[in-house]
Amino acid sequence: MPNPTPSPKPRGKSRKSFWLKQIIMWHWMSSALSLIGLVLFAVTGFTLNHAADIEGKAQIVEHAAQVPAPLQSLIAPDDKPDTKKPLPPKIAAWVAKEFKVQAGGEAEWSFDTVYLPLPRPGGDAWVSLDRETGEATSEDSDRGVIAYLNDLHKGRNSGGEWSWFLDVFAFACLVFALTGLVLLWLHAHNRKTTWPLVAGGFVIPAAIAVIFIH
Questions:
Q1: Which of 47, 88, 140, 158 could join 125 in a cystine, given CB atoms 3.0 to 4.6 angstroms apart?
Q2: InterPro entries under this entry (predicted)?
Q3: What is the mean pLDDT of residues 40-48?
């Protein structure tokens, strides 16, 4: 006897199965993308909350040098008002080589000094050039690995590439959370504590904020 033709699945069930597969796929993809970032931000959330107790004392290195005579004319005093502009290319190259720094970005030009700030995650640095004498001084402070990770958490002095990563990471976390909420809703009838736990995740921080933060 020929095998009976299988009856087609109801369209409603087929559509529900399709969307369930889509939600599960987006949930695991977003979790994979955001996993390392979530671990990093969870750890640095703790270290930021206890920054005063965890971060060590900054290590400071100072250095002094003399701008070569042929280059001093590039920073010589003039009658122009205070301004912000990049270092001349030859001065920038000399500063980068002498002080082992990235000498890009805008410097602050006053009548007697050219000051180049060099902030970075986990530390800070600057180079100062005396426009009259050509004396160059620098200071570099390093606050350690924990401070570096804390600054990455805040996006402090981290550059445009890291800012783009934070945007992508935030979107991945949002997809992970929303698809997780849908999966909670789909399985909540078998897990009675689902919505009380979800409500607790909202009520507890809201109550702390209202009662204790003023």
A1: 140
A2: PepSY_TM-like_2
A3: 94
